[in-house]
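Possible race condition, two jobs.
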Amino acid sequence: MVTQLEKIWNDFVSSGLGEVVDRTYLRRIKFANALSFLGILTLLGFGTDRIISGYYLIGLTDLAVGCFMILNLIVLRFSKNVMLASSLGTGCLLGLILFLFITGGANRTGIYWIYFFPVISFFLYGIRWGLIWMGILYISILGLQLASRTRGIFVAYDFGTTIHMLASLLIESALVCYYAKVMENEEKVVEAHNLKLRETSQIIKNEMAQRQKAEDELLRISQAVRSSSDAIAIEDIDGTHLYHNKAFYNLFNFSVSGLNAYGGFAHLFSDSAMGKTIQEIVKKGGSWTGEVEVKRKDNSTVQTYLRINAINDHAGRTIGSVFIYSDVSERKKWENALVSSEERFRKVIASISDHIYMTNYSSEGIPTNAYISPNVEKLTGYPHSRFLEDWGFWANDLIHPEDRAAARVQVENFKQGWDSQVEYRITKSDGESIWVRDSGRASLDKQSGQVTVYGVVSDITINKYQESVKETLLQELQKANRELAEFAYIVSHDLKAPLRAISSLAQWLSEDYREILDEEGKEKVGLLLGRTKRMHNLIEGVLAYSRLGRMKPTMCRIDSHEETRQIIDLLSPPDHIEIAINGELPVIIYDRIHFNQIMQNLISNAIKYNDKEYGLVNISCRQSEGYWEYLVSDNGLGIEEQHFDRIFKIFQSLKPRDEFESTGIGLTIVKKIVEYYGGTIKLISQPGRGSEFRFTIPGNLQLEPEESGKQLLGGQINEK
């Protein structure tokens, strides 16, 4: 517990500065902080006592200064700015002394704070700055005394008392200054000694680090030699075998003494004359590299790549040699396999119908053929040699004149090191023109500036023909769609006139001959009116469906909650059906007419197909990542799962139209609108338990251009 408290105290008085400042200065900071701590306790105690005793002004001043000193310690702790904190604290103490000099303090004893000032000034700031702070104190007190003598201000102490106070302060300052100077000199001696110790310690650490580094390097080299897969051996200048690693033993099966008894390095060569020649070269301080065949202990041979270097002492004299054998038997097998693979690769390339090429562009942009596949003959009808001899033959003669500009752009892209793809026509040797796609991947060597292009040329004549046919069919389809839309519009309008006439005639019969018609006649007239109304609704539905996709939507900001409420009021649901909006529906970006069509169709269907004594329709919306999902549910008839897809098809109705008046177009329109804006719609339902339609509206839809500058309150989804 004592150790922990001591640690807390040391951390407090050093303000957490640690070794980031000079040790001498750090000791002064510790002294100042310890003194500040005692001063804070004294100020808080005196302030509280003086307030209790009725000296409110003096007591509050003591408390204020104590709080300021606490704040100053906090500033020092977190800012690490020693000069700022020290200046603020000393300035605060100076202000307190001057305040007490004017007021006298409680019982005229508060001025004794003045005798702390020399201690703080000299021990915290040193001789020079201590004298400056003491000068500020003397000037301030003498100035206040002179001001009091001219009756400009009242001070608690007369001139004589002030002189005695300053004289005693001067004696104290001289003593404090002397001891501060002695302390500084002693600290300089200690610091110089510490500096020398640190320098000596650092030198020792550096030497130890260098020695450790050398030992580590030797250890790494030793481990590398021992673990190397290459056979490594060392001999002296006389050819005596001194050392070899495990890989050497595994390769030759000789021990050190066994190899010396066998005759040494020269006898390992299948060609002993070559071994002696190489050994003489090394004795003269030279080196040798090359592939040689060497013998094992069992007289079997192995192909190796040998590197021999002389070992020289500090005077440059050759004292031995090091041998490194690399077994290249496997590499030879791989080289043979590579030759076979290359041959197979050439056969594969030859079997591909596309033409493959590789072109090098120098740093000046000059092209040369690095590879031309034999397929070029099949593609163009010209001999393979024609392209090898002249790179420009393809660009200047083979490419159709009208397409050469596009091909030149591709070449410029290649020179910049960019990948490129272009389609153009070439003229074959028989005069036939075909379409090709030329795709190249460029690889830039930043050091040399050379660009290598790996490309493939494919015959796309059939694709071009298919694209042409596709474009023709697409245009015909668009024309047919336009004609169909116009037909639907014209037919629908032409049907309205006779329908209105039939409807009017039936209405007249019903009204004018009401007294004459019997019940059967009235029923038939009513049936005629219902059928004409159904036909009129069907025509209106066809018109609405034909307009979808032909008219550009007007995107605007919509309060979907208010729009839905107005739609409910417009539909005027029966008294036994309740329609509830659960929660607040969001503000969205959408076409207002299309949103109303969606909601009106879904809500009216929920009302129409409800067979319950108490019908309930719930409307809500929930937020998902990137879109809003609206839910319209009811407790009505429900739909069997096998009919889920059918209800979204045009003119489809699950109930007889004499039971439920329906055109079979409403849900088709809803689905087309929702999907037009990138949304989805799905149905969840069970017979007898109601239905729930869920449709989504993307949250990234944009306003019309004239609205784009306005603030989008609901244009994007934000987390609530």
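Job #2 (started ~2 s after job #1):
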Amino acid sequence: MAIVPMAKILIVSHNSEAAGLLEVLQREGICQILNAQQATVSKDLPELAAKRDRPKDIEELLNRLTKCIAFLKVFGDPTKALVNMLSPRVLVDEISYQTTVSDRQLLKIIDRCEQVEAAIEKAKSRRESLRGTIQELLPWQSLATPVEEIGPLARTICQAGMMPAGQLKYVQDNISELGGAIQQIAETENHYACLVVYLKENTNEVQKLLRAAEFAPVNFAAMLALSPSAALRINSAEGTGTAAELIKQHEDKLSEQELLLQKHIDSATKLSKDLLKLEILYDHYWNLLNREQTKSAAPATQRTVVLEAWVKEKDYRRLEKIVSAFGASSLSRVKPAEDEEIPVEIENKQIVRPFEVITRLYGMPQPSNVDPTIFLAPFFALFFGICLGDAGYGLIMVVATVLLVKKMQGDKKLLWMLGVCSVFAILVGALTGSWFGNVVTAFVPSLEPLRKRLMWFDPLEKPLMMLGVVLILGYVQLMSGLVIAFVHNLRMKDYAAAVFEQLTWLVMLNSLLLLGLSKAGVISADVGKLFGRLAVVPAVLIVLLSSRQGGWGGRLGLGAYNLFSAVFYLGDVLSYLRLMALGMVSSGLAMAVNLIAGLTLKIPYGIGILIMIPVLIGGHGFNLILSVLGAFVHTMRLQFVEFFPKFLVGGGKAFEPLHKEFKHIYLERT
């Protein structure tokens, strides 16, 4: 339930065992190792420069593995990928792991993957080229003239091309005057495939006419040169003949190419059986790269590596045992520099730990500040429950959370947190009588007495009561923030800040609250007058001493502004009205879904119930998703904007120890 104390340490290791020591430190994951720019020892001893040897061979191998893994995943079992959506990483025991990373044959698999991938890409390119050529030849398949004969002759030119359908009549009417003729071969959508024949001496005039008609010439020689076969040319025996004959040639080649492509795909499918091995190899070399980069970035001499690092105070003894196992390495404590930024780690008890998700989203507190997790946890869970505000939705979330916790891999703090919040949603929903909105009243009236027995009040019938509840809760949380800051400053022996920045506000705000309650007739007028006068004392102290730096003119000005900021507390309290709004909207939408479902139930012949079921499931499912998102975001906003600023100083740097990272597998320790 606190920020973890950190120790600054210095490890000096001989080059011969530095790599082995780093491997153990990475496996244990307890040290945040500083690079040469961050390390204090580099500033005190400039001759300790980082080696900066870039492990290019490891980087290149990782790049190759990344491409191979992405390639083979395409050819893996799709049903297995669907099943593993929530658990994408495979559990691998340490013996299998070591066997795989020491298998030198895997490098040959990488080579084979790259060859097959290149072959598949080449085959696909050839296939698309053949398909394109066939598509271009199709309009000319009825042409009886061999394509190699279409072109310049002794006195005339024969030209093939495509022309918009609306331009054919125009060309036919004008080309005869130029001693030419045009023949329609085929029609494709809005174009005609045509042959144009004209005298060479009229070339300029005919070309001008054809351009005006948007005539697009077709060059069969160029078209057939696009074929993937280097031997296929217009003047070769294989590339001659009519368009129909050429189409047949290309279709035969396309069939051959499809078979070749399938052969390569089969090879890739066979290689995909080794996908797990490549993933293990990737994770191994990824961790090796991290170690090598850490080593090359650390200060070093010709024969030693200097590791300046942070470790949790409680892990120092464990670190001593690790380093003592290496005969040419030594460990010592060092004192942090005065202006050095200490990394921050937070640890909480099991019930509170899931709410660390919210703290980490906000950012780590300063090392001298407090961990807000234990303070925000009850408020967050309760406020989330109020925003969701439905016992039925809460039950669904509890069931979903339990199932996901069992199936999902990785950090499950968020799921556990949502599970706790769901319990509060059930509690709030039961107290306000909301079970999937008014589904009990509308469809299960026999359970109505039980619902009323559990219910405290209905917010839709007594909105002012709900208004009062959320305002009281908001005020309590804001006062809690001031109390936390007050106690923390006392522990830090900053008595001036505790008195003039927190205690004065606690006294003044609560005195003003009691004065307001007396005006409303809740408490006696005499008590209200007493506290009204008492509020003057902290108000004066806020003006005089809430700002304690600089000249008195600046102090009084800032003090007056601080006193004026009392109105901001009113705005902060009113922000908690969003709890009421979200809760009532969630219940209102649920009731609307039930109303629509009730109307469909009236459809005769059993059709109504068939329609009602998907309406209930779809409507409540949609409302649940929207309500959960709204509850999470707005509850988090109340913590970040209203609660945390009262006591928390953020901006701390998170503790990031060197540790093993696994992208594809889970390593099972033996």
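The domain at 142-241 is CATH 3.30.70.2750 (Alpha-Beta Plaits).
Logs attached separately.
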